[in-house]
Write a structure and sequence with these properties.
Rossmann fold, three-stranded parallel beta sheet, about 260 residues, AMP-dep_synth/lig_dom, 2 domains, ligase, about 30% strand, single chain, GMP Synthetase, Chain A, domain 3, alpha+beta, seven-stranded antiparallel beta sheet
């Protein structure tokens, strides 16, 4: 293929397959590599570009929604030196984006996290037979509430932190599970991973749900230590690790977080 669009989990499996087999599969014809469905953190993106793609072409993340269509994207001619690792690109044609504070609802400037809100030429008319949900999905000025936390840089590159409803807390500190999932995926024995939490008096005790690469073996305690050495104190895996045959994902590659939670209960 010359064009490939896929999800984060699939890319990690592709990298494992290529490296295990000494890059015997010729992917030199691949010229455009797009990843969507969930954010990819910068460290993981660099690892995959260097190991799977051998630094030849960039991974271009994109950002979209059923209600709005394509929201942010990298242009087709963006090269390895242009694409910002971890960013989903800049607003697509016909798209306006603003970031509002999760506490005040007021607009914030560059490099400040908040909810992403959108105005689009491809804006939906509404949810079928659900006027209440339609009305609640827009603010008083007609901007669509994405439910995603993100920020933009001075040069208008958009970064996604995570879904508001998926954020967890420990000792009043906010946790985006994708940050811990990225650390888990960086371990050479891990093929796929998700993070969920157990309730406690202090907040969410994070639990890693992990699929190990074929032929690999690692003790849960060592994997917990690997993660805890690389994250902030409130992001530590205080709930431990469980190993599974498959991490629950949708056909689009998105983690099924309710099923993750069911696995630890």
């Amino acid at each position: 293929p010359t064009f490939l669009m896929t999800g984060v989990a699939a890319v990690n499996e592709m990298m494992f397959c290529q490296m295990k087999n000494g890059h015997k599969y010729n992917i030199q014809s691949l010229m455009t590599f797009v990843v969507g469905g969930s954010p990819m953190r910068a460290d993981l993106q660099r690892t995959i570009v260097n190991n799977l793609l051998q630094g030849r072409i960039p991974i271009k993340q994109g950002y979209g929604a059923s209600e709005q269509g394509i929201i942010a994207v990298w242009s087709m001619d963006s090269g390895i030196g242009t694409v910002r690792d971890g960013s989903v690109g800049r607003p697509a044609a016909g798209i306006e984006i603003k970031i509002v504070s999760l506490k005040t609802g007021k607009c914030v400037g560059p490099n400040t996290e908040g909810e992403i809100r959108i105005k689009s030429v491809s804006n939906m008319e509404g949810y079928v037979n659900d006027m209440r949900k339609t009305i609640c999905s827009y603010d008083e000025d007609g901007w669509f509430k994405s439910g995603d936390v993100g920020y933009y840089t001075d040069d208008c590159c958009l970064f996604i932190v995570g879904r508001i409803k998926e954020l967890m807390f420990y000792n009043h500190e906010r946790i985006a599970p994708i940050d811990i999932e990225t650390v888990l995926l960086s371990h050479p024995a891990v093929l796929d991973a998700g993070v969920t939490g157990k309730n406690s008096d202090h907040g969410d005790l994070l639990v890693g749900v992990v699929k190990i690469k074929p032929g690999q073996n690692i003790e849960p305690e060592k994997l917990v230590s690997y993660v805890n050495d690389r994250v902030k104190d409130h992001e530590r895996l205080r709930g431990g690790i469980i190993f599974v045959d498959d991490v629950p994902r949708s056909p689009a590659g998105k983690l099924k977080r309710e099923e993750l939670l069911n696995l630890i209960q």
